[in-house]
Amino acid sequence: MTSTLLRPHPPRTTRTTGAGPRALARDWSEIQERMLVPLYEAVHTRLGVGPGTRLLGLGCGSGLALLMAAARGADVTGVETDSPERLNLARERLAAHEQGGDASGPAGGARLAEHPPARAQAYTVVTSLEPVGCLTGDTDALIARLRDAAPLAERGAAVVLTGWGPPERCATAAVLRVAERLAEPRSPGRWRPAGRDDLEDVARRAGLVPDGSGRVSCPFGYAGIDSAVRGLWSTGLFDAAAAATDPAQVDKELREALHPYVRADGTVWMPNVFRYLVARTR
């Protein structure tokens, strides 16, 4: 089995309270990404990811979902277009997995390339596990990636899209409204509440055929407010607000918005529901 990590486009720039791209990627990897493990597990189980699966992960981030798929025996390829720092962390994770000698893991070594490698066999599964539909313009970028990826997959291959659930089912939506309120009304990348049919709209515009969906509980739990702030900053959902105002102001209001979710022991707990859509290539 092989694992390949690709970065076909330049990374975006990120503005925060002073943390650089490397620190943000590390915060994502160590704090925030694990919040989506129930979503990753549900998708892999639904699709029967395992030996014989040739999986292409779009927006693979720091590689946790790829690692979980590789541990199931899948042949995984990762594409990360926005953050070379996250991509480097994904490479480290997969390399450590391979060096550990796990017989179910990939055997070819993690490789970086500018373009998808030619394959004798097409992908059987394509995943986009970074939730979309919560930033203005993010679905347009995903549609372009899906159109590029579809010809590399088998006909009828499963393509999984993920997004936030209804705002009333996501406690974190109340905190994210800080980002919506402080950003310029027309600024690109401004946070917005997820729409009910966002994923279906993306699938149809990308030329895919919707074929079922599901919801998964993904509570956000943090050791304390500082950890919550670092994790939420690492998502990029506050970038537009920081650019429009002052990162220190965003940080202050973010901390205030988190207070209702602080428990007696100082931990932070926010129940959320995420949604996934299974579509098929034509």
UniProtKB/TrEMBL annotation:
GO terms for biological process: methylation. One of its GO terms (molecular function) is methyltransferase activity. It comes from the Bacteria. Transmembrane segments: none annotated. Keywords: Methyltransferase, Transferase. Gene3D superfamilies: Vaccinia Virus protein VP39. Residues 1-21, 96-115 are annotated as: Disordered. The keyword Methyltransferase applies. InterPro entries: SAM-dependent_MTases_sf. This is Class I SAM-dependent methyltransferase. It comes from Streptomyces fragilis. The lineage of its organism: Bacteria, Bacillati, Actinomycetota, Actinomycetes, Kitasatosporales.
